[in-house]
Amino acid sequence: xxSSFSVVKTSKSMIKPAKPTPQTTLNLSAIDNLPGLRCKxxxxxxxxxxxxxxxxxIGEAISKALVHxxxxxxxxxxxxxxxxxxxxxxxxxxxxxxxxxxxxxxxNYLSHPLFPTHHQxxxxxxxxxxxxxxxxxxxxxxxxxxxxxxxxxFCHSICDxxxxxxxxxxxxxxxxxLTAPMVTPVWLREAIPTPPNLSYTSSSExxxxxxxxxxxxxxxxxxxxxxxxGMFKNKYYNxxxxxxxxxxxxxxxxxxxxxxxxNLESDEEVKLVFFANExxxxxxxx
Length: 286
Known about the structure:
By secondary structure, this protein is α+β, with helices and mostly antiparallel strands. The protein has 2 domains: 7-205, 2-Layer Sandwich (Chloramphenicol Acetyltransferase), CATH 3.30.559; 226-285, no CATH class. Helix content is 24%, strand content 18%. The strands form 2 sheets. It has a 5-stranded mixed sheet, with helices on one face. The chain has a 3-stranded antiparallel sheet with strand order 2-5-4, with no helix packed on it. A hairpin with a 5-residue loop joins strand 4 (75-78) and strand 5 (84-87). The longest helix has 16 residues, at 246-261.
């Protein structure tokens, strides 16, 4: 890796819908209102082969996509009951363009482990803009090899991973010259049932998370063959008479090894949390 890696940011702008959009207020679902989702999710998207002026191409495509995905160009507000809503203002999303002084190969295409200064690839709004107010922030960084990286911050309250992927798929379609998205977005948050007696928590009442200054994440890649997976799944079936999925097996084994490695007391309670797509289950319930 280039030890003098640096990124020069050349422009910052707000990308607004290319055409007028509805000025309205939309309610979010009970899931969207969960306090743990009131955060920005950061991701990096690496493209080894770029186009001429990728920032400009992506910016123009986002502007066209926002006509159809206009809630993303709005701002979060709270009702008197503390319920999150989207004020569809058309204010837009933030886009920064930048250049890096090396090739993607020199930074291993951002493969793990991420290099120490990878934060330079994330959007950094101007001081007059509040980053917590903008639902989507993007930085497009060109590399010497012609490829680019799109650093993305997406408000989880408005979109999960699948929703964000659908939006940027639409952006890619406009960038390729399409005049309309292949999948027309639909706002159906009301289809998600609201539990009875649900009370909402205002953002001003949310507890502050502790700052873990000594917390260090370790990254490790483990290869497990299909033969090993099959062997352990058969062993589980022989012991319990029940079957398990590949995900259940892998999650259980990794968590078991991790728990043993940190030498917890035998009666210590530990919990495993993972993301799951609930939309298929909701379809079955409706």
